[in-house]
Structures are given as C-alpha cells and as structure tokens.
C-alpha cells in the first residue's frame, strides 16, 4: 500500500474512534515525514511518525522551536503568541528557569512522601466505584483519582474537584461538540482567539488561579500555587501575571488529563488481554515496570508541535523556515523498528523506552514521575482486589487529534 498524498492528520474524523493506528503505520512505512494540508487560515504541517525521527526533532531545539506554538496546530500572530506563552512555549534559559521552579516537587525522592496519601486516595476512589455492579470507568475512577491528587497538590478543597475535571474537559475537548463551549475551528471561537485552546474555560481557570495566588502571596505554604507565587525563577525574572496564569493553567490540564486517559486506556487494554492481568496478579512486583507498557499503549497525547527556525533537509524532505513540524507520539510508540509486535500489550516488555512523556530534549514532561506513581498505585490496588471488570458497551473517545482520550468507558463486574 502506498500512502495517499492527500492524507492529512488534520482530519478529525480519523480520530473518531481513537488513534488511527493503520494510518500511522502507513505513514511510517511510506511517508515518515509527510506534508499535511489544512483548511485556511492554516497553511499545513509536516508529520513526523518514526520513533528515531521524533527523538531527533525533540532534541534539536536550535532547529525545531517550541516558542512558536507547541500545543496547538493553530497559527498565531506575534501578539497572540506572547499572550499565550507558557513554559512549554519557551526554550533556552527562561524555559529552564520556569521548569526549575516546580521541579524539586516532582522528583522521585520528593514523591516518595506522597505515596501514603496516594494509596489512600486510590482506595477511596475504588471503594466508591466498586460498590456498583455497572459504572463508567472514566467518571468513577480515571477522572476522579488524578483530580483528587491535583486538589491535594494545589491545596484546594474536594468540593472544587468537579470544576477541575470540567475545565480540563472543556479546554482539551475544544474540538469535541460534547465538551467544547465553542468549537475551536468555528467563527464563534474568534472572540476567544487570545485564550489557550480558544476556550472561555481558560478565563475561569485564570480567575481561580489568581484568587488562590492572592490568598497565598507572602505565605509559607509548600503547595504548587504558593511555590509559584512566592519564589523567583533562577534567571532572576519574576513571574508576571501572564507567566503565572499560563503556568497555573498548564498544571490544571497536565495534572489531570494525561493520567486519567492513561488509566482508562490501561483498563480497556487489560480487559482485552486477561492473560496480562493474570501475569500481574501472580507477579505484582512487575507492575512498576508494566507502567511503561501501559503508557506506550495509551499514548495519551497524540502530538506536540515544533516550528522550523531555519530551512533544513530532514529525512529527505525540504522543510522551510516557519513550517510547522508535528511529532506523533502514538506512532512512535508503535514503531516496528523499535518495538517488537508493537500493537500487542506485553507487560514484561524489555527494553521499553516509550515516548508518551517525550523522549529526550528539554521539554520532557515535568510530572512524569508523579504520573507513573499514580498509575502504578491504581493498578496495584485494583488488581489486588481480585475484581474482574468487563466491557459494558462501546468506548466513547474524545474527538481530538491532540488528546488520545475517552469520554466514557462503560464497565461491569464479572
């Protein structure tokens, strides 16, 4: 099969039922650096789908910049870029300084102190869900658990958890009619063009963050908000309102969405592979390592974007200065040249250098150790209970080519 020249990963219909694995495989084989057309006013982008090419793009920040849009395929003017700029749309010294602000709170050593409360939150979430014979795994487990963790890290009350979940849905689901206040590609969204994801939910998150900051400014708290508002980055440049609000919004999204979708994918994958459940029940010591396979199979974020700073020949393609270059993590995680039987769940896969958090480069996910610990503890507890869950209907995916996630996963006890 040869790749159709008109195939474009901008087509959201390709993602209606999850990741388009067959399309990714076709691109890896026949057009690993592939030009994708887009509707006006966008101008198209290059898709990079092979594992090693993705790593090369992520590591070469001199050629492939994060500063001209890293999350959205939307093409922003200079004013919009400055308004929306966050840590992940920043390179160089400033990026390192912003990252270092919270990095100490996410090291494995620091997270060791969280294990007790993480196990308590996990138990509470599963206790509430498993009293029911049928339930939605997304609402009752996967969304509930990481949002409770995020509430602890932000030091906000449990009563705020529904807001945190809904904000994430509304922003990340900006191309899904069920979740979006206004669809990102609609004329109506132009009034929100300065906001992340073109979502009015961002304004609510900003206001919520500023209220917390005002309460904690000058205090001695150790929560994430207190750390952001009361410390000066290592480059000596204090966070202004834009820096704070965009950093805070990033925490709200990253602290919820990727972990919840990985947990849901993992449950879905395990139900389809009961032999892997038995392996983990017989050898629970494998679960911390199996988390890498859970992440590889889930690939909760489809892509991130870079922009070419200069013209370059990359894998035989002439990329022009200013071209968007999009790396597809899910495709890299299924690359046959790196992973044997890449579409098979193998909880004993070794080695397993999955790239769901990025792979190399300065923008590796800051919270990757916390996410790994959350996923590990969730499945240690769930599998130890000996409760078997079965599908109770078709999974319902978020209509998005950015997040590889679920809206619903109906399950029932066996």
Overall domain count = 1
What is the molecular shape? globular
The named CATH superfamily? Cytochrome P450
* Assembly status: single chain
Q: Give the proportion of residues in helices.
A: 40-55%
Order of helices and strands: HEEHEHHHHEHHHHHHHHHEEEEHHEEEE
Largest β sheet strand count, sense and barrel closure: 5 strands, mixed
Strand order in the largest sheet:
1-2-8-5-3
Instruction: Count every helix, treating DSSP H or I runs of 4 or more residues as helices.
Output: 17
What is the straight-line distance between the termini?
42 Å
What structural keywords apply?
414 residues; Cytochrome p450; five-stranded mixed beta sheet; three-stranded antiparallel beta sheet; globular
Describe the structure.
The protein is an alpha+beta fold and 414 residues long. It has one domain (12-413): Cytochrome p450, CATH 1.10.630. The chain is built from 17 helices and 12 strands. The protein has helices at residues 21-30, 51-59, 78-84, 92-102, 108-112, 115-130, 137-142, 144-154, 161-172, 201-216, 224-230, 241-254, 257-271, 274-282, 287-298, 329-332, 368-384; strands at residues 33-36, 45-48, 64-65, 134-136, 303-308, 312-314, 317-319, 324-328, 389-391, 396-397, 406-408, 410-413. The strands form 4 sheets. Strands 1-2-8-5-3 form a 5-stranded mixed beta sheet. The protein starts with 20 loop residues before the first helix and ends with a strand. The model has no long low-confidence stretch (mean pLDDT 94).
């Amino acid at each position: 099969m040869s790749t159709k020249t008109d195939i474009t990963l901008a087509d959201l219909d390709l993602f209606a039922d999850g990741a388009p694995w067959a399309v990714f495989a076709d691109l890896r084989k026949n057009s690993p650096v592939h030009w994708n057309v887009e509707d006006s006013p966008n101008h198209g982008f290059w898709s990079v789908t092979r594992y090693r090419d993705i790593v090369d793009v992520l590591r070469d920040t001199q050629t492939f910049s994060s500063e001209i849009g890293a999350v959205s395929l939307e093409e922003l003017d200079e004013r919009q870029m400055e308004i929306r700029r966050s840590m992940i749309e920043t390179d160089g010294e400033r990026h390192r300084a912003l990252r270092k602000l919270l990095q100490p709170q996410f090291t494995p050593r620091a997270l060791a102190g969280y294990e007790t409360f993480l196990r308590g939150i996990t138990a509470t979430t599963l206790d509430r869900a498993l009293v029911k014979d049928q339930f939605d795994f997304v609402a009752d487990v996967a969304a509930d658990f990481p949002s409770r963790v995020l509430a602890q890290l932000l030091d906000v009350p449990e009563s705020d958890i529904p807001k945190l979940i809904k904000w994430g849905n509304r922003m990340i689901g900006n191309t899904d009619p069920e979740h979006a206040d206004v669809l990102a590609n609609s004329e109506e969204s132009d009034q929100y063009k300065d906001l992340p994801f073109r979502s009015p939910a961002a304004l609510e998150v900003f206001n919520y963050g500023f209220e917390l900051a005002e309460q904690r400014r000058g205090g001695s708290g150790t929560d994430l908000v207190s750390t952001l508002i009361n410390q000066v980055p290592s480059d000596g440049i204090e966070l202004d309102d834009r820096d704070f609000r965009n950093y805070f919004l990033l925490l709200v999204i990253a602290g919820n969405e990727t972990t919840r979708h990985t947990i849901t994918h993992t449950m879905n994958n395990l139900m389809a592979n009961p032999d892997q459940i038995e392996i983990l029940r017989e050898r629970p010591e494998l679960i911390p390592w199996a988390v890498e396979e859970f992440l590889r199979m889930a690939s909760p974020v489809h892509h991130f974007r870079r922009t070419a700073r200069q013209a370059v020949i990359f894998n035989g393609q002439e990329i022009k200065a200013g071209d968007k270059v999009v790396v597809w993590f899910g495709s890299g995680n299924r690359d046959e040249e790196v992973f044997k039987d890449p579409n098979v769940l193998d909880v004993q896969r070794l080695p397993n250098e999955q790239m769901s958090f990025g792979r190399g480069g300065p923008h590796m996910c800051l919270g990757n150790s916390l996410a790994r610990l959350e996923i590990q503890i969730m499945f240690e507890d769930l599998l130890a209970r000996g409760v078997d869950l079965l599908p109770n209907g078709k999974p319902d995916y978020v209509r998005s080519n950015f997040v590889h996630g679920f809206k619903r996963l109906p399950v029932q006890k066996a």
